[in-house]
Amino acid sequence: MPSENNLFAYNHGQIIPLDQASLHISDLAVQRGYGVFDFIKVQQGLPLFMEDYLDRFYQSAGHMGLEVPLSRSELRQVVKKLSEANGLEVAGMKMILTGGYSEDGYTPTDANLLITQLPLVLPSEEKVSRGISIMTHDYVREFPEVKSINYTMGIRLITQLKNRGAEEVLYVKNGVVSEFPRCNFFIVQEDDTVVTPSSNILYGITRKNVLQLAGRRYKTEVRDITLQEVLQAKEAFLTSTTKRILPIVKIDDVVIGSGKPGNATLSLLQDLIELEELNVKKRLS
Amino acid sequence: MPSENNLFAYNHGQIIPLDQASLHISDLAVQRGYGVFDFIKVQQGLPLFMEDYLDRFYQSAGHMGLEVPLSRSELRQVVKKLSEANGLEVAGMKMILTGGYSEDGYTPTDANLLITQLPLVLPSEEKVSRGISIMTHDYVREFPEVKSINYTMGIRLITQLKNRGAEEVLYVKNGVVSEFPRCNFFIVQEDDTVVTPSSNILYGITRKNVLQLAGRRYKTEVRDITLQEVLQAKEAFLTSTTKRILPIVKIDDVVIGSGKPGNATLSLLQDLIELEELNVKKRLS
């Protein structure tokens, strides 16, 4: 695997060495935290479920009044070239679109598009087989449907997470759970129904895939979930592009189910891994 | 006045030409919109009320777990040197502190400090004598007490402001007003009591000064204000470092008071201008 020093990035319309990729400080991301992004997992050198991620990236841009400076086919080409240049087998491809070089430091202008690719380490088998502890926090994201670059709350909570020995923070507002800063949330009820929140969330691509996979084995529901229900669930897990499915065994010191990753969770993880492999195979054939 | 091409900025510990000031894209402002800032007005080459702004800047940094890489006296020196290098008579000095070059794109590290200075145009006499129209929007900032760089909501509302012919947007939540994206809010009641919101706001330096000045002439109150009260006020105005005091004559198509800037508002503006001049004189003597 090439070291980060040998990686390339897309910046100001060109593929250049990552260590030279920069923005002038007048960019609205620096001045006002204004931008959107998306993040695609690359396996065997191929971006997985790319069209879904591109759909969401263009949608996020539209919500924020930003125009992606490349057409979808141009963007696909850049992603392909960058992936070839970097030659990473397992990686995360991140596209960031900022408010651009603003003259008055407030009004968006021609958006700046950055694309970087970094090696990705998937959760260890040990972590998956043990499950993780999470905490909850009273919050709902400002524009949940937009993958904006604003992670102020999540980042401010890093220290608290560490102090409490939790790995992730689940946002809860008025007793209803929504999502993690970077992951979606699922529970499995006593009767094996798989449930995931319907509103005030970013609509994750992995969430969508897992929901489809779950539909093959179990009853599924997409609706508001109260924290009370969560604490009585048989299983709980999170989904994300980089983490796939991670079993949750403890929430705010309450043990979930048996305190160990459950059967439904682990079956769905296996299904997801197979779906990803299928996606790669299709693209390679 | 020098053109922007001849201006200097503080970046990576040095005073360099502004057009060369940049951040590597791994900075957490770019990756996660994570950072704080402050903005000082410079008159006759001197930063006004600097200690108040420095207090707030260090406080904002502390709230976000960021460390300003300069001591207060070092920062004062840099501000002085930059001001001398740029030679601007009336300007805005902006200090931005970001989450730094993060290896994992999420965890804050050594903060990056940027300082820029740009010419400042104060509101025209015509605008002050006419007053402005504003709109309201249902929102409260995430961390109102912190001058974070997150202006997602304010910036997303720019188009709506233009369409409605309004100049600023006043945030209202559960019927209680708080602040504008970049300004504080005041009303003057029928009995000449001057009132400004107490909570869910950034504590503006100009707000503080105006509150003190108002106390010399009128009864003052710092408390929650309902939108209903606002619409029945005799006068309304906003305060900010760059705008000083701007009379508000219309809110969401409701005319405030006589529909013209009121006597209290204009008297306080005169008082504020005198206070600023006094601050400059003291520093020059």
Number of helices of chain A: 9
As a percent range, the share of strand residues of chain A is: 25-35%
Instruction: Indicate the mean pLDDT of chain A.
Output: 96
Major sheet characteristics of chain A: 10 strands, mixed
Class by alpha and beta content of chain A:
alpha+beta
Q: Give the N-terminus to C-terminus distance of chain A in angstroms.
A: 25 Å
Number of domains of chain A: 2
CATH architectural label of the largest domain in chain A: Alpha-Beta Barrel
- Runs of chain A in which pLDDT lies below 50 for 5 or more consecutive residues are none
Q: How many extended strands of chain A? A: 17
Shape of chain A: globular
Fold and architecture overview:
The structure is a homodimer of 285-residue chains. With 285 residues, chain A is an alpha+beta fold. The longest helix of chain A is centred in the C-terminal third of the chain and has 22 residues, at 263-284. Chain A has 9 helices and 17 strands. Chain A folds into 2 domains: 4-119, Aminotransferase class 4, branched-chain amino acid transferase, N-terminal domain (D-amino Acid Aminotransferase, Chain A, domain 1, 2-Layer Sandwich), CATH 3.30.470; 125-279, D-amino Acid Aminotransferase, subunit A, domain 2 (D-amino Acid Aminotransferase, Chain A, domain 2), CATH 3.20.10.10. In chain A, strands 8, 9, 10, 11, 12, 13, 14, 15, 16 and 17 form a 10-stranded mixed sheet that branches. In chain A, strands 5-4-6-7 form a 4-stranded antiparallel sheet. In chain A, strands 1-2 form a two-stranded antiparallel ribbon. The first copy, chain A, starts with 7 loop residues before the first strand and ends with a helix. The A-B interface holds A 9, 11, 19, 21-25, 27-35, 64-65, 94, 96, 98-99, 105-108, 114, 116, 118, 142-143, 148-156, 158-159, 182 and B 9, 11, 19, 21-25, 27-35, 64-65, 94, 96, 98-99, 105-108, 114, 116, 118, 142-143, 148-156, 158-159.
